[in-house]
Design brief:
290 residues; mainly alpha; globular
Length: 290
Amino acid sequence: MAWLLAAVLSACFAGITSILAKCGIRQTDSDLATALRTVVVLLFAWIMVLVVGSGGTIGAITPRSLLFLILSGTATGASWLCYFKALSMGDVNKVVPIDKSSTVLTVLLAIICFSETGHLAVKLVGTVLLAAGIFLMVERKAEQGETKTGRAWIFYAFGSAICAALTSILAKVGISGVESNLGTAIRTSVVLVLAWLVVFMQGKQRQLRYLQRQELIFILLSGLATGASWLCYYYAIQNGVVSVVVPIDKLSLVITVIFSRVVFGERLSRRACTGLCLMVAGTLMMAIWS
């Protein structure tokens, strides 16, 4: 059950990523931060390829697998750009639950696309609990005041969730017969190209000279955490059950909520706490009984 442990580690690293990234985009443009983070993730990914010695197998990747890895990388890049844009606009405790709604769509797609119908009733009940929990956590906090950008962060957060769901499904197909570290490195290369393309198209590369050192450190650390999370996640995806791995990975929300309270002072209401408990219950149900 090494893939199960990998899924848990993925959740831990992913939970830390959101906090580090939020600290790094207080003054820094989110698209530029995404591009910088991707450089770190890419270096991390290719170092792991060298360590495991799977680089020599790149020529054996089938055109079909390569296509789906590229598509998965594109979806990931779009998800990242939307996610960190949303984080720069809204509170962590508002953005992250919406992003985690990708779990519901991913589980349903995995059942349809990969016929992962084992313990179907448990998975469906767990998915309902997740959906209910997300609904409760995504609450309107008008009484606390909105950010100057209004509610625009919601659209970016949902865009991130949709792209993240597609990422997992496309990656499952793409890494079939491909060593997981190599697959991660190829996907990250696509993300890097997409992220910097967005930066240069908007002329945001000029902001590099004004980048604060402290924020740069947090951005780089978030990239390291993301790299570690990805390596664990795609190992689990390749060797485990997608409809189980994805919900476990989304438990990173618990870690994020804890750290957002400590670092940013963001509090959860009773409604949001109930939603968090439902999400954890649904995840554990699918992980234990599936």
